[in-house]
Amino acid sequence: MLTGRFFLTSTYGFASFYVYTKIVWMMHKNWRDYKSTFFKLYTADYFFNLLTFLNSFFTLRAPQNTCDDCFFSFLFNSQTAESNSWFPLNFFFTLHYCMAFIQYSMIFLFALNRCSMVFLFSSYEKWWRPALPWLLLLVAVFPLTITWPIMTNHAYYIYIPKLEGYATKSSADVSDILNVLLAFMAVVTVLTALANLLSIVRLICLADRITGAERNLFFVSLVACVIQLLAAGNTLILFYAVNDSNRSSIGAQTATVLMPFVSDLLTLSHPWTLLYFSQKVRTSLLTYYYPHLMTKVFTVSNTSNY
Question: How many domains does the chain have?
């Protein structure tokens, strides 16, 4: 049967996307207040993250948490290496790799957006508005040029007794794709960290010229960068430092256990960090969905002033 970890990760995942969806819908309905390129990036990232989360049920969450005699095992046993049909699993598995490229690219774009805000606070929107659609198109299309061999080859499930679950595989040689992905993750993470570091230095020098709201949005980007550093570091450790000789060590086991949760942080942290740092978003969310609650808050506030 499906494991407790599956239900745990699914529960906090759907709860996060419930909040995530409410935030994005509120922004859509109040677009005049959320028309900056940061919030357009945020909305685009929502759809990318939603696709990542839903796709993971086909490539990771459900197969990895299903044993060979579980009720749903017939679904995975029906698509093995001997199966004649491999669609749509080849599409899902292609997306699995594509979304890794996209997630790291989007966090870099957030950092670049905030960095340009700090250095060109009076004109950065003028440059970002025409460039944003093309940047998003590049982010979406570039991964396909790397992962296309997976799309055009046989994808299947295989049961791994040691893991007590299924894994998604491809008849294509994914080692080259994985090497490109790992190099991409490392380079983009370094660039993201540099952009945030430059922003921090500039913010210290121009603390009185940047609005509190813009500064708070930078902190949203900064937290995403920290999570990206953690995820990239954990992934690189698993692929380059862990081998058969040390797989049972505490460090290797810790990295393995952390892997799914760190990956979830990349996908699910955005609504919570935005709510935490942005008073504007918190107020707008309460006003849009719970106006009666806001009325009570203002009533109590006004009463306390007498």
Answer: 1
Please tell me the pTM assigned to this model.
Answer: 0.92
Q: pLDDT tens digits for 106-134?
A: 999 999 999 999 999 889 999 999 999 99
Residue 88, in any domain of the structure: no
Q: Which domain holds residue 110?
A: 16-58+98-153+172-290
For 145-180, the pLDDT digits (tens) are 999 999 999 999 999 998 889 999 999 999 999 999
In three-state form (DSSP H/G/I as H, E/B as E, the rest C), the secondary structure along the chain is CCCHHHHHHHHHHHHHHHHHHHHHHHHHHCCCCCCCHHHHHHHHHHHHHHHHHHHHHHHHHHHHCCCCCCCCHHHHHCCCCCCCCCCCHHHHHHHHHHHHHHHHHHHHHHHHHHHHHHHCCCCHHHHHHHHHHHHHHHHHHHHHHHHHHHHCCCEEEEEECCCCEEEEEECCCCHHHHHHHHHHHHHHHHHHHHHHHHHHHHHHHCCCCCCHHHHHHHHHHHHHHHHHHHHHHHHHHHHHCCCCCCCCCHHHHHHHHHHHHHHHHHHHCHHHHHHHHCHHHHHHHHHHHCHHHHHHHHHHHHHHCC
